Amino acid sequence: MSINSKKVIGAFLIGASAFILIGLAWPQYQVMGITRSAISERDEIISDKKELVNTINKLKDEYQSRASDMARLDVLLPKTKNIKEALQDISTIAQQTGLGLASIKTSATEEKNKKDTGPGQVTIETSTEGSYRSLVSFLTELEKNLRITDLDSISLSEGGGEGASNILKMSIKAKGYFIKQDE
């Protein structure tokens, strides 16, 4: 074999190995590029998901820290009419302040407009007897009560009977509120 033929065979082997290397390695190199971009996209998705999980955890912690506020809001503005509880509150306040309840009447305001998004109302009308101080004390305690109550009207008249010179007959009309539930 001559030197020229050895050079040709060497050049052929080098060319064939370069061709094989490029033919086999180049597609793998391209796959590696695609894989790297897919990995970076997945890393971005994972970081976004971690941020979302952190945000959810922060919101959950905030919700739990405000659980007492939510419980108080449920008392202030209950989710149902709960007329029995409203009557019990008024009866308890009347007993504590020395007013005698003669009668209690309630009525719930019906929804006339479905688009009305305000709170529902329960109207409470009471007839009581007691002293002026008892009335003032009753109104003060009603104001301190957690449940939101608006007084619509108070009418006073002199109580009759023997020895009842400082006894007043009172008629009180008030409104309590509740959150309307979608049906």
What does this structure look like?
This protein has 183 residues and is of the alpha+beta class. It folds into 2 domains: 65 residues; 101 residues, Alpha-Beta Plaits. A 4-stranded antiparallel sheet has the order 1-2-4-3. α3 crosses α4. It is rod-shaped and about 150 Å long. The model has no long low-confidence stretch (mean pLDDT 81).
Features:
183 residues, alpha+beta, Alpha-Beta Plaits, 2 domains, four-stranded antiparallel β-sheet, 4 helices, 22% strand, rod-shaped
- Which architecture of the largest domain does the CATH hierarchy give at level 2? 2-Layer Sandwich
Major β-sheet annotation: 4 strands, antiparallel
Could you say how many structural domains there are in total?
2
Oligomeric description of these chains: single chain
Poorly predicted parts? none
Number of helices: 4
Q: How many beta strands in the DSSP annotation? A: 4
Which H/E pattern describes the elements? HHHEEHEE
Distance between the termini: 99 Å
Strand order of the largest sheet: 1-2-4-3
Give the proportion of residues in helices.
Answer: 55-70%
Q: What is the global morphology?
A: rod-shaped
Q: Write down the CATH class of the largest domain.
A: Alpha Beta
- Measured by DSSP, the beta-strand proportion falls in 15-25%
**Rg from C-alpha positions?**
41 Å
Going by CATH, what is the homologous superfamily of the largest domain?
A: Ribosomal protein S6/Translation elongation factor EF1B
Mean pLDDT: 81
Given helix and strand content, the structural type is: alpha+beta
Write the CATH fold name of the largest domain.
Alpha-Beta Plaits
